[in-house]
Amino acid sequence: MGDVYEVAGQLVKSVYYCNVPTIVQHMEDRMLPRHTSPSYFVRGNRADVTQLLKTTPATKLTFSVIGVQPGIRRSAINAHLSDLMAFCISYARQGGAAKAYWLVNEPEN
Length: 109
Known about the structure:
With 109 residues, the chain is of the alpha+beta class. It has helices spanning 2-14, 20-30, 46-55, 79-94, and strands at 64-73, 99-105. Helix 4 links the parallel strand 1 (64-73) and strand 2.
């Protein structure tokens, strides 16, 4: 269950980036050549994304924060983990994410 705590921490930290100036600065920083493996765009470019983010009215932007935990089945989530996951969703929504949820492994029927 340690993985759930790690992902929960990442989900909470992600709320910091639910802000246009912050996410733009982060993208620019991640693309600098000082990183061992700088980030890059597969399609489009930084300038276009930056312009789009900065010129779109805040009422038209939606940030989503998703905790992905494929290693755990819904049936294995006890009350403690459920509370932790619910806290993360609540924290993300209060911090600026319009959508926040967890994806877990669903058993096949």
